[in-house]
């Protein structure tokens, strides 16, 4: 069985303990490769090699550094089909989605930050004629990048690209559930000539390898994307060591549809924002609020389009929803559907595991699920489910919609549908989310700040925000 390897000090290597974890293909429900169960020893080695590589990498002329990163991006594009297939097999997502979204975005992330770093400049402040202040921003040092399983290579590169472009060296850990494309990326880094120790990829469990990374004294900043509960643990570990933190956490995003919306667009985009990637995107709109005058019409059209979605073998063209990432995650999502029933919800469509035939007979498939009739404060409407499950609720006034949208501890993203620009502006201002989409969803410009309010995170990624995060800021005042 194929063994995934760590990437430490420029070489692919086994974990020091030679212990491995099973890596499951979720569409087939079977183990298909092994992932290192790395421990403190591996992390020490990775952090040591990152520390050793830092002076040369941070001191390298920026053009040379970026040329290497651009070569990695080109190699990702060259291997698009191979990487897309690997992502689909590892995660369960439709290969078509990996080919058009995940993998192109991975190379785009690297290109974006590599070229952005060519254009950075810093501020200067003249204090009358008496002094000049200038701000120096220097690479912060060895950093940790820890990413989740839902968009594996996409989010892994979203973190390592700004870190490397800014001149930091990295100890990174992808999710133990989806390690394969980070392993393939390590091979491309070697091919591209990335100097040894600049990027180190340690595979393994969050509580073991992940915890060892964030605790390591030589790691000065942590960029983390994952669940809010994990984010709390990381913050608790990092705070006494005063490590710099960027936390991109969970969401329970509202999708507000006013009666004056472009109806067809609102329905078809809401299908995407509800069920893309099996609903396993932190930005999916899981609570849909519809103005009462169009509620029945919306629900009918939405359910009708939901029923047309094909749940199937992720490797086949025409599949809209593949498998959920793991048996445990499928059981978690199913438990929320049971909870919704207990809380008085009506399952309008979906709600059950789907049994496919043939090679995917043991896969973790779930029908896209629409639930109505639930109150705001119930757990189904408060807790992140992170699967193909949405609740739909009517509202009467703008104020009521805003109040409902804000009625959770999360504040990652929100979608607002209206043809009235003033209303869009007014509502956007009052919804407490870090990202608002008006009449669209997941329409991305990588220059924009990305991140959540409340329990959805701390700090922002994207554009300058990410590059600045990986630097230390120093003001130098010269008295003239
Ligand atoms: P998770 O928190 O379980 O794991 C994320 C990563 O952290 C994994 O690599 C895991 O191994 C590691 N980890 C776990 N415990 C750790 C510890 N103690 N120390 C260091 N690392 C540790 O999240 P997940 O289940 O992989 O991903 C799903 C979650 O991610 C959802 O809540 C989703 O909303 C969130 N997410 C957020 C964003 C965003 O941009 N805000 C994007 C994607 C996913």
From TrEMBL:
The keyword NAD applies. Keywords: NAD, Oxidoreductase. CDD domains: ALDH_F8_HMSADH. It comes from the Bacteria. SUPFAM superfamilies: ALDH-like. It holds the Pfam family Aldedh. GO terms for molecular function: aldehyde dehydrogenase [NAD(P)+] activity. Residues 19-476 form the Aldehyde dehydrogenase domain. The active site is at residue 248. The keyword Hydrolase does not apply. Belongs to the aldehyde dehydrogenase family. PANTHER family: 2-AMINOMUCONIC SEMIALDEHYDE DEHYDROGENASE. This is Aldehyde dehydrogenase. It comes from Dawidia cretensis.
């Amino acid at each position: 069985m194929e063994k995934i390897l760590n990437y430490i000090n420029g070489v692919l290597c086994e974990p020091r303990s030679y212990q491995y974890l099973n890596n499951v293909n979720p569409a087939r429900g079977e183990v298909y490769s092994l992932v290192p169960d790395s421990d403190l020893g591996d992390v020490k080695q990775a952090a040591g090699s990152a520390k050793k590589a830092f002076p040369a990498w941070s001191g390298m002329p920026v053009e040379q550094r970026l040329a290497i990163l651009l070569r990695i991006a080109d190699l990702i594009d060259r291997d698009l089909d191979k990487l897309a297939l690997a992502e689909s097999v590892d995660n369960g997502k439709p290969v078509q989605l990996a080919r058009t979204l995940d993998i192109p975005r991975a190379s785009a992330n690297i290109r974006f930050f590599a070229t952005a770093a060519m254009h950075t400049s810093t501020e200067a402040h003249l204090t009358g004629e008496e002094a000049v202040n200038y701000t120096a921003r220097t690479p912060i040092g060895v950093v940790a990048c820890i990413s989740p399983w839902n968009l594996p290579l996409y989010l892994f590169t979203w973190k390592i690209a700004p870190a490397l472009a800014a001149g930091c060296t990295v100890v990174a850990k992808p999710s133990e559930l989806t390690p394969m494309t980070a392993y393939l990326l390590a091979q491309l880094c070697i091919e591209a000539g990335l100097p040894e120790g600049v990027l180190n990829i340690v595979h393994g469990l969050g509580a073991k390898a992940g915890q060892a990374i964030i605790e390591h004294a030589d790691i000065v900043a942590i960029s983390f994307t994952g669940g809010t509960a994990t984010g709390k643990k990381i913050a608790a570990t990092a705070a006494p060591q005063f490590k710099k933190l960027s936390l991109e956490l969970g969401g329970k995003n509202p999708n507000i549809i006013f009666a004056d919306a472009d109806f067809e667009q609102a329905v078809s985009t809401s299908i995407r924002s509800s069920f893309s990637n099996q609903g396993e995107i932190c930005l999916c709109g899981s609570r849909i609020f519809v103005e009462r005058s169009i509620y029945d019409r919306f629900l009918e059209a939405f359910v009708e389009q939901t029923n047309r979605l094909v749940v199937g073998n992720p490797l086949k063209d025409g599949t809209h929803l593949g498998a959920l990432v793991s048996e445990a995650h499928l059981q978690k999502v199913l438990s929320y559907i049971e909870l919704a029933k207990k809380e008085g919800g009506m399952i309008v469509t979906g709600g059950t595991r789907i049994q496919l035939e043939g090679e995917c007979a043991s896969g973790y498939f779930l029908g896209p699920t629409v639930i109505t009739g639930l109150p705001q404060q119930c757990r189904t409407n408060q807790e992140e489910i992170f699967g193909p499950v949405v609740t739909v609720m009517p509202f009467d006034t703008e104020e009521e919609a805003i109040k409902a949208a804000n009625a959770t501890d999360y504040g990652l993203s929100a979608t607002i549908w209206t043809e009235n620009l003033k209303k869009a502006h007014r509502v956007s201002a009052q919804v407490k989310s870090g990202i608002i989409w008006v009449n669209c969803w997941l329409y991305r410009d990588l220059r924009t700040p990305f991140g959540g309010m409340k329990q959805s995170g701390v700090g922002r990624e994207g554009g300058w925000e990410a590059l600045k995060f990986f630097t230390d800021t120093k003001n130098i005042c010269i008295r003239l």
